[in-house]
């Protein structure tokens, strides 16, 4: 299992329940892919540097996780499909 960090931005124009539901669905997706969530941080709403899909603000989340190498692409695909997620980035962390 490799250590990864994922940051994703959820539309801030959604209801608070929908934002939480989107974040929970990311967490459930990680667990369904046999991954382990080490840390899940809610960073709050911030102004975007430039408009993304006509949104000016976004709700940021940061996840530290362990995933089998072969399922990283599947997590990336599922995050790309979710229309409530404006942007996401998955980075593999170096072993310390």
Verbal overview:
The protein has 2 helices and 4 strands. The protein is an alpha+beta fold and 96 residues long. It is globular, with a radius of gyration of 13 Å.
Task: Write a brief structural summary.
Helix content is 28%, strand content 50%. It is α+β, with helices and mostly antiparallel strands and 96 residues long. The protein has a single domain, classed as Ribosomal protein S6/Translation elongation factor EF1B (Alpha-Beta Plaits).
Quickly list its features.
96 residues, alpha+beta, Alpha-Beta Plaits, 4-stranded antiparallel sheet, 2 helices
Work out the strand percent.
over 45%
Overall form: globular
Q: For the record, what is the CATH homologous superfamily label? A: Ribosomal protein S6/Translation elongation factor EF1B
Looking across the biggest beta sheet, what order are the strands in? 2-3-1-4
Low-confidence sequence ranges? none
Q: If helices are DSSP runs of H or I spanning 4 or more residues, what is the number of helices? A: 2
Compute the separation of the termini in Å: 14 Å
Mean pLDDT: 94
Number of DSSP-assigned strands: 4
Q: Name the CATH class.
A: Alpha Beta
What is the strand and helix layout of this fold?
Elements: E1 2-11, H1 16-32, E2 36-52, E3 55-67, H2 72-81, E4 85-92
């Amino acid at each position: 299992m490799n250590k990864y960090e994922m940051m994703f931005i959820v539309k801030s124009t959604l209801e608070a329940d929908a934002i939480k539901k989107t974040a929970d669905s990311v967490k459930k997706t990680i667990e369904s892919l046999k991954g382990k969530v080490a840390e899940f941080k809610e960073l709050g709403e911030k102004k975007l540097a430039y408009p993304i899909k006509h949104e000016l603000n976004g709700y940021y989340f940061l996840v530290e996780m362990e995933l089998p190498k072969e399922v990283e692409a599947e997590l990336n695909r599922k995050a790309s499909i979710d229309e409530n997620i404006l942007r996401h980035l998955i980075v593999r962390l170096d072993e310390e």
